[in-house]
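Final report, closing paragraph on structural work. Over the funding period we assembled a curated collection of sequence-structure pairs, and we close with a single example.
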Amino acid sequence: MLAKKRVVVGMSGGVDSSVTAALLKEAGFEVFGLAMELYSCDKPLTGGCCTPKDRLDARKVCEKLDLPFAIVDLRPAFRRHVLDYFAAEYAQGKTPLPCAPCNREVRFKALLEYADQKGAGWIATGHYARVQEGNILRARDLKKDQSYFLWGLEPEVVSRLRLPIGDYAKEEVRALAKKFGLPTSDKAESQDLCFVGNEDHARFLEEHYPAAARPAGDFVDETGNVLGRHHGLHAYTVGQRRRLGVSLGQRAYVTKLDPEKNEIVLGSKESLRAKGLIAKNPNWIAGRSLLPGPWSLVRIRSTHAGVPAQLEELGKTLQITFQTPQDAVTPGQAAVFYDADRLLGGAWIERAIH
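Its predicted structure, as stored:
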């Protein structure tokens, strides 16, 4: 029998998970803190998260709140489901979204397993999103919303999930951390990939996954004319316009990565616009019976506000048609679907439809 007033909190060592634990304890829950040892713990990083210092900060928070604390070693699973995937996607000319498989295959699985060991009915994290009646909703503060990264979770995970800070703005979370006297109240926020930190992701691949680091090749225009040389497909992404190293007399954007020819196509901002996309392997987090209707809100990257779109199933793929054309549809990212604020699911972007 799982205890309904017992919860395991994923402790990253940051202010958000720290306040999550404090709020749950204040609400009368028996709270267990669980930190996760991932790849980045193997070496010092500038920036990033999940470092030894972050685990130490998580421990200090649990000591301050008088909570049991444990660390679980997830390095093998993290390498298999996150790092290997990350490298494989870049090798195929795609731009990966490592937080999604990390959440589905590593972090939340570990939280559930530990919760079962402790007889806890709930798990919790410091994500900016909300859970109501078994559904994930966008955060009240849409500027901080992280529901985009949770589209791959399974319904049974969501049924045991609590996200206490989803009703707060970041400034309010900081204020709560000071109120609770947490040692992480003034800790800087990390925006980087946890295993890369402030380093360049291309350099990370070249050092750790040299087979995925593509050789130099040609920049070409949309008719195939050579414009210059690139440093390898793994160093670029669709929509990029900075650090291209070519001068064309006008702004140029990466519009396509072609792994077969080892070419990068450059074009105008107008050529980035797509009327839709093809996506594969959908996951309906709210249940298959809640397949989106004719018009749903679709987000194509974490910073995208979303656009109404029509969804059509084509076997194992989805064809998504935007109400208005969108810029920089990027293979390897996710198309994530909403009904108003409710997260319905998502799928992996295969290609744009122009």
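The longest helix spans residues 99-118. The chain has seven helices and 17 strands. We thank the funder for supporting this effort.
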